[in-house]
Each structure stands twice: as C-alpha cells, then as structure tokens.
Amino acid sequence: MSEKFTVVKRGYDTSEVDEYIVQLETTIRNYKEKDNAINNALISAQITASNVIKEANESSDLIKSAAIEKLDAITASVTVQKRMVKEFQNDYNSLMNKYMHEINETEILSLYSKVQDLEEYIDGLVDDGIKKTEEAPEGDGKPSSWL
User: Fold this and answer.
1) pLDDT attached to residue 91
2) Alpha carbon distance 117, 120 (integer Å)
3) What backbone torsions phi and psi does residue 12 show, to the nearest 5 degrees?
4) CA 20 to 30 Å from 66, out of 15, 84, 100, 129?
5) Domain residue ranges of the chain, discontinuous segments joined by +
6) Which candidate, 118, 134, 116, 120, places its Cα nearest to that of 145?
7) Among 122, 142, 140, 123, residue whose Cα is nearest residue 132
8) CA 105 remoteness from chain centre
9) Model-level pTM?
10) Where does residue 116 fall: left (phi above 0), alpha (psi -120 to 50 degrees), or beta otherwise?
11) Run of H or E including 100
12) How far is it, in rounded angstroms, from Cα 26 to Cα 1?
C-alpha cells in the first residue's frame, strides 16, 4: 500500500487513489472480521463460564442435600440407639432392684453356710476315697467306691 500518489493534472491519479481505498476497505473489513471473531469468542467464553458456574452450584446443592440427608439419618439412628440404651439401663436397674430386695442378708448367710457344709462334705468324701485307695489291693488303681 502506497500512501503517496502520483501527481497528475488537477490532483492525484484517481486509479491509484481508488486502488488505495479498496486496499483500506479490505484491511478495515479484515479488522472488523477479527473484532467480530474476538467478540464472539468472548461471548462464548462468558456463556461457558456462566454454565460451568451454574452446574457447579447445582452439583454443590445436590451434594449438600445428600450430606444433610445422611446426617439426618445418622442423627435419627443415634437418637434411637440412645433411647434403646436408656431403656436397657432402666430394665437393668429394675431387675437389679427387684432381686436385691428379694435376697436379703439372712438368705445370703444361709447360702454361704450351705456352700460351706457342701465343701466339708466333699472334703470328707475325698478323705474317705484316699483311705480306701490306700487299703485297696493293687489293681487298676481306682478306689473300690469308684467301681
């Protein structure tokens, strides 16, 4: 592109000026096309970014809702478990109170005395068994009372 025109009678060479104007128009058209392409790309990028943000927000809302549902289920389960433990504790305490009132100290001493009598009886049987074993003739080694 030449910006200097040949001087002819009565001004510049009109064909050179016309050719230069055509070149300028072509250059301007190319710049406008590039500008439109850049604007379209920018708009497309803005739309894409907006869609990505929208999808991310929707996804986070779904994740948050699912987490809240799970937390509510866990909380409900913990509440049920606490109630069951409390019921068990109450039942246990009731049973313990019932049996503690039924077994008094006299009965416990009586049971202890019976266990002691039983131990003495067993000791007597063991002593009798040992004596009989010592008196028994050699054989299979078992006291005669065991046969």
Assistant:
1) 92
2) 5
3) -90, 165
4) 84
5) 1-102, 105-137
6) 134
7) 142
8) 53
9) 0.42
10) alpha
11) helix 14-102
12) 12
